[in-house]
Amino acid sequence: MLKGVDCVAVSTICYRGMPFMIASANAYAGRGTASTMDVYGLLGNPVGHSLSPPMHEAAYDALGIDARYVTFEPDPDDLEDALRGACALGIRGLNVTIPFKEEVLSVVDPNPLAARIGAVNTVDLVDNIGYNTDVAGVVRAFEHHDVTLSGTAAVIGAGGAGRAASFALADQGMTVRIYNRTRARAETLAAEVPNASALGLDDVDLDDVDVLVNATSVGMESDETPVPAENLHDGLAVLDAVYRPIETRLLTDAEESGAVTVDGAWMLLFQGVEAFERWTGRDAPVDEMNAALRAEL
Ligand code: NAP
């Protein structure tokens, strides 16, 4: 629940009076009337290059849901005001991204998984719960590629994506090795994740590893890889969280080694799918959302 605010009551009262801004966007987009339309969105700073609006609006179109997905870029100091305002205006759900994913925990009560991870990327403003759907993004991306999540996982990176991937794979019953450039950060994370250990990037050894996740930004808009190609093998399934470019050096090397490859757009897709399903209670139209996402990449 939004701490200190009875959001359900506020949103019930305020929902009929949608703000002028939303009404304008709605008229511009040729969608339903302001009084009936559901509004979802993304809170971050910056959010200019977000792929979430086309992905979610493709889902609304596919299922005939009268809704709109809007991006909001509040001042970094104004998170609490922004969330209370969204609540009062009847916005039903918000994704939350940098720089707010951790701070949002001081305003919204997380579900147990998000509390363990220490980060929320999806807020349900109707039920007033914060979720971390990056975890489902990792698991469902692998499952979509028929990868069995058992044995040993290596997660490269201990930032936000690394935290989500480590908890995701550990909760599937995998033993998790967390490799990070700053080893102390990997050690802090490994102390929180079940069956996890911490190592430095120079120690990467994947001989007995089944699943590899790159959760660093290495490879983003570059031809670099966090893992030398000689470490890769055909017993691996490799997810690269980086999705710009969609085909990273790591994935090219992994494919050449015979590994199963899962690009970062699948993780992005399934975190959005999970958010959509949390907010609407309906199965997401995965193919339509995927097509809309990939059309932007
Ligand atoms: P973050 O919290 O800032 O963490 C960045 C991580 O990258 C840290 O582990 C950092 O290591 C490591 N790193 C950065 N530069 C490095 C370098 N030159 N060499 C080795 N390691 C380096 O960022 P994040 O939110 O976790 O995001 C990480 C990546 O995942 C980004 O590319 C982001 O776009 C992507 N991502 C994708 C999805 C998706 O849905 N596909 C979701 C979330 C994030 P140190 O701790 O040593 O600094």
Question: Which helices and strands occur, and which strands form pairs?
Answer:
Layout (H helix, E strand, L loop, with lengths): L6 H8 L5 H10 L8 E6 L8 H12 L3 E6 L6 H10 L4 E4 L15 H6 L4 E3 L4 E3 L2 H11 L7 E5 L3 H12 L3 E6 L2 H10 L3 E5 L10 E4 L22 E4 L8 H8 L3 E3 L1 H17 L5 H10 L2
Parallel strand pairs: 1-2, 1-3, 6-7, 6-9, 7-8, 9-10, 10-11
Antiparallel strand pairs: 3-4, 4-5
Helix pairs in contact: 3-10, 3-11, 6-7, 6-10, 10-11
NADP nicotinamide-adenine-dinucleotide phosphate binds next to helix 6, helix 7 and helix 10.
- Side by side, the strands of the main sheet go 8-7-6-9-10-11
User: Could you name the CATH homologous superfamily of the largest domain?
Assistant: Leucine Dehydrogenase, chain A, domain 1
Bound molecules: NADP nicotinamide-adenine-dinucleotide phosphate
Q: Uncertain regions: pLDDT < 50 for 5+ in a row?
A: 8-28
Characterize the largest beta sheet: strand count, sense, and whether it forms a barrel. 6 strands, parallel
Order of helices and strands: HHEHEHEHEEHEHEHEEEHEHH
| Integer average pLDDT | 91
CATH topological fold name of the largest domain = Rossmann fold
- The second-level CATH architecture of the largest domain is 3-Layer(aba) Sandwich
Which range best describes the helical content: under 10%, 10-25%, 25-40%, 40-55%, 55-70% or over 70%?
Answer: 25-40%
The beta-strand count equals 11
